[in-house]
Amino acid sequence: MGYCIKCGERWKAKRLCHCTACHRNFGGIFGFDLHRRGMKCNDPEDFGMVMKNGIWQRTMSEEYKNKLRKLSRDTKSKTLGAGQG
Ligand SMILES: [Zn+2]
Ligand SMILES: [Zn+2]
Questions:
Q1: Which residues hold their Cβ within 5 A of ligand 1, which is an ion?
Q2: Mind listing the pLDDT tens digit for each residue in 1-50?
Q3: Who is most buried in 3, 35, 36, 42, counting CB within 10 A?
Q4: How many domains are there within the chain?
Q5: Which domain holds residue 45?
Q6: Of the ranges 9-13, 42-46, 55-59, 73-77, which one carries the lowest mean pLDDT score?
Q7: How many angstroms separate the CA atoms of 22 and 43, rounded?
Q8: Is residue 80 one of the residues assigned to a domain?
Q9: From the CA of 46, how far away is ligand 1's center (Å)?
């Protein structure tokens, strides 16, 4: 939940990040950080983000989602160690 004193925007979603510099809404801190590359506001579109219902979100292909799912499963079942490095 938050409130921007500059533009008067209010939002309820906890995870929503509103940039008080460019007054864009982001679906999460990751997207917010991404657009703040170099300590300035960048166009989220440059980072492959899209705006939905006034909120900038990262787009994830199904392929990428599946990859992440697989990865988290692998790291759980595998034991780390064996001569890497
Ligand atoms: Zn910004
Ligand atoms: Zn604002």
A1: 19, 21-22, 41
A2: 688 999 998 888 888 999 999 999 999 898 999 999 999 999 999 888 99
A3: 35
A4: 1
A5: 2-74
A6: 73-77
A7: 10
A8: no
A9: 13
